[in-house]
Amino acid sequence: MTRILIVYASREGQTAKIAHEIAGGFRFQGQPVDIYRCIDCPEGLRPASYDLVFAGSSVHEGVHDPGLGAWVRANLEELSRTKSAFFSVSLSAAGSRPEQQQDAQRLVAQFIEQTGWDPDTVASFGGAIAYSKYGFIKRRIMRSISAKEGGDVDTSHDYEYTDWESVCEFAQNAADMAAPAPAMSRPSL
After folding, report:
1. What is the pLDDT of residue 181?
2. Which CATH class is domain 4-127+162-178?
3. Alpha-carbon gap, residue 155 to 108, rounded angstroms
4. 133 closest CA partner among 110, 155, 103, 109
5. Which residues fall within 8 angstroms of residue 112, CB to CB, at 6 or more apart?
6. Gap between the terminal Cα atoms of the chain
7. Which residues in the chain belong to E strands, given as ranges?
8. Are 120 and 101 a contacting pair, CB within 8 Å?
């Protein structure tokens, strides 16, 4: 049985939703999962006591959440001894243009460089525009950005761009990577 830890940073809730979807899939399979917002991790939490660690963060104003970056740096030694996976959540990752996908990849590379972490696998997922959760100014800014990118601008609705099938595939691939190899039997002579 694979013990799994998921640590995330989320502002409007889409990264939390993705983290909980990953956790739910593993729990459905009977795997033990601990899940925490990075700012709520218990004192003395040891990532190396898990078989697989997921860390995820949303991107705002072109950077990942500094709280998750601090958590990764504080646990870097243990993360280096554990199978680990990083997921990034941004509107760039939801874009269809090559430059948007390149921007999402650049943001992941930047986070990895800044933290010194070398996760075994990474993924970028499309986030959401949560107009209903924004204040007046942020709603106007996000509407302007979305309009410029040819996106959704009706502020009376929220828009979700997460490809849930990709989230499940990422989680399963990470789990397969962390699963112990089957025992090799010695051939009979």
Report:
1. 44
2. alpha beta
3. 29
4. 155
5. 86, 118, 119, 122
6. 33
7. 4-9, 33-37, 52-60, 63-64, 83-90, 121-126, 128-129, 159-160
8. no
71-79 contact pairs (CB < 8 A, 24+): 71/7, 71/38, 71/41, 72/115, 72/117, 73/115, 73/116, 73/117, 75/47, 76/115, 76/116, 76/117, 78/46, 78/47, 78/48, 79/47, 79/48, 79/53, 79/117, 79/119
What is the DSSP code (8-state) at residue 42?
A: P
Task: Give the position of tokens 């990752």.
Answer: 93
Contact 14, 58 (CB under 8 A): yes
Three-class SS state of 54:
strand
Domain segments of the chain: what residues? 4-127+162-178, 128-161
State pTM to two decimals.
0.88
In this prediction, residue 185 has a pLDDT band, given cuts at 50, 70 and 90, of very low
Question: Residues 88-117: pLDDT tens digits?
Answer: 999 888 887 888 889 899 999 999 999 999
Amino acid at 151: G
Residue 90 pairs in a beta bridge with 126
